[in-house]
């Protein structure tokens, strides 16, 4: 019987899906944040459930060769990263193993290629959303809504990080109040920044509960002087009592309401509500690798589902005959259409709606796909969509996933219904975190 508040010496036998260490005490599973496979540690049991518990490291008796001192001073309390205590080489091995083990749980024995890592795994993010609380800005502590202040974030773009902190400082100087989610009171909810990592254009989004921002004219003038590459300031209004960050209404306060960035040979217009991959260096590798793995001959009709602002569609356009892009967010589809014009592309047809509703309609119109690309959110693909793809019988399907658990679930279903899995390519889109992106290439059996 494992006892809460007792100390035990354990060996870490594995790492879990979020990077946590896993130990067994007389067959009882204990999860330990910050522990690495192969280590012997002394743990304090802090929580006990019927079949598993949680421990806290008291002492590392035998450290892993992959253990490193985290570079960030608030790493242990901030919830933004969870693998900084592991060398980057160790992180890559852990993620590659995570993809392999998760797919095996679904009975999928696949050819897993070596993960594509990043040259410099810091300051890569082109987007950050900072919650504002009690006069502070930062990121939420692990498993809480309590803000941890940080002077510098090691995975955010440096200039964007500085812009967010300075904007918040000016908002507080003008006596704006932070939002209190428990009381549903106050106004300033989040500060969001976007940066074009190749264009260096900056966008600031102030998420508020109501329409008014005190002293906004003064704030804008000061920021324009201090950040000469600031191209857009937008107010997003979210008056709902919710933990969803962005509302539906955006008001442009300065600039055009968007920024433009370059990815590969193409330019992309990015608006506040648009989905755009947060690591452009690895995104270029991700898309180029996915297209290379597909071996297109230039004559195919390709569906790009969950297409966002059309990044994959744009990369595909020169490699195939026709692309149909589908996305549920209207603002993203408008950006996608603008991006096609921006890059003088004429062989993409963008449509707005839920993929599981639109694709059956497009198929009934007599439009069929030779190749289907899907890049769904973490919840994976809707079963109705998968059934339509199965009915269409495309020659190939490329599934790009940010959640290997839902990837495994959907692959299992596709493999039971006429597809075979050719290969899987992990890509490290999110260094210092446990997240991993995967490309799965399927062929019709």
Q: How is this structure best described in words?
A:
There is one protein chain. The protein is α/β, with parallel strands linked by helices and 445 residues long. It folds into three domains: 1-67, Nucleic acid-binding proteins (OB fold (Dihydrolipoamide Acetyltransferase, E2P), Beta Barrel), CATH 2.40.50; 92-119 and 279-444, Rossmann fold (3-Layer(aba) Sandwich); 127-263, OB fold (Dihydrolipoamide Acetyltransferase, E2P), CATH 2.40.50. The chain is built from nine helices and 21 strands. It has helices spanning 88-105, 158-173, 216-226, 280-294, 311-317, 330-342, 355-364, 383-392, 404-415, and strands at residues 7-15, 21-25, 28-32, 40-48, 52-62, 127-133, 136-140, 147-149, 188-195, 202-208, 230-237, 249-255, 259-263, 266-270, 301-305, 322-327, 348-352, 371-374, 396-401, 419-427, 437-444. The strands form four sheets. A seven-stranded mixed beta sheet has the order 8-7-6-9-10-11-12, covered by helices on one side. Strands 17-16-15-18-19-21-20 form a seven-stranded mixed beta sheet, sandwiched between helices. Strands 1-2-3-5-4 form a five-stranded mixed β-barrel. Helix 1 (88-105) runs parallel beside helix 9 (404-415) and helix 7 (355-364) runs parallel beside helix 8. It is globular. The protein starts with 6 loop residues before the first strand and ends with a strand.
């Amino acid at each position: 019987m494992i006892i809460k508040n007792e100390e035990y010496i354990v060996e870490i036998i594995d790492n879990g899906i979020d990077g946590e260490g896993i130990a067994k005490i007389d067959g009882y599973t204990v999860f330990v944040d910050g522990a690495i496979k192969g280590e012997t540690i002394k743990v304090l049991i802090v929580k006990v459930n019927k079949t598993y518990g949680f421990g806290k490291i008291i002492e590392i008796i035998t450290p892993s060769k992959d253990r490193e001192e985290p570079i960030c001073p608030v790493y242990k309390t901030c919830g933004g990263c969870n693998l900084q205590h592991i060398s980057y080489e160790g992180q890559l091995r852990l993620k590659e193993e995570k993809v392999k083990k998760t797919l095996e749980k679904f009975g999928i024995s696949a050819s897993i290629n070596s993960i594509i890592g990043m040259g410099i795994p810091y300051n890569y993010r082109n987007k950050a959303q900072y919650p504002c609380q009690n006069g502070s800005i930062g990121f939420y502590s692990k498993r809480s809504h309590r803000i941890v202040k940080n002077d510098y974030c090691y995975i955010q773009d440096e200039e964007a990080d500085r812009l967010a902190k300075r904007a918040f400082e000016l908002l507080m100087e003008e006596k704006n109040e932070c939002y209190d989610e428990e009381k549903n009171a106050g106004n300033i909810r989040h500060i969001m920044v976007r940066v074009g990592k190749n264009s260096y254009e900056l966008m600031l989004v102030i998420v508020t509960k109501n329409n008014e921002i005190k002293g906004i004219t003064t704030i804008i003038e000061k920021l324009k002087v201090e950040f000469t590459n600031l191209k857009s300031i937008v107010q997003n209004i979210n008056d709902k009592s919710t933990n969803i960050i962005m509302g539906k209404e955006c008001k442009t306060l300065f600039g055009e309401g968007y920024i433009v960035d370059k990815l590969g040979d193409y330019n992309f217009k990015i608006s506040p509500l648009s989905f755009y991959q947060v690591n452009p260096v690895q995104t270029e590798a991700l898309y180029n690798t996915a297209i290379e793995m597909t071996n297109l001959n230039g004559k195919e009709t390709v569906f790009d589902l969950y297409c966002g602002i059309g990044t994959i569609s744009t990369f595909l356009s020169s490699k195939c005959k026709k692309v149909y892009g589908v996305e549920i967010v209207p603002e993203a589809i408008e950006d996608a259409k603008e991006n096609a014009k921006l890059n003088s592309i004429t062989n993409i047809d963008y449509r707005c709606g839920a993929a599981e509703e639109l694709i059956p309609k497009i198929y009934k119109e007599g439009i069929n796909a030779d190749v289907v690309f899907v890049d769904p959110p973490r919840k994976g693909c809707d079963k109705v969509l998968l059934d339509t793809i199965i009915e269409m019988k495309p020659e190939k399907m490329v599934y790009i996933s940010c959640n290997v658990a839902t990837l495994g679930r959907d692959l299992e279903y596709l493999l039971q219904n006429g597809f075979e899995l050719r290969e899987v390519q992990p890509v490290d889109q999110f260094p210092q975190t446990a997240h991993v992106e995967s490309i799965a290439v399927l062929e019709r059996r």
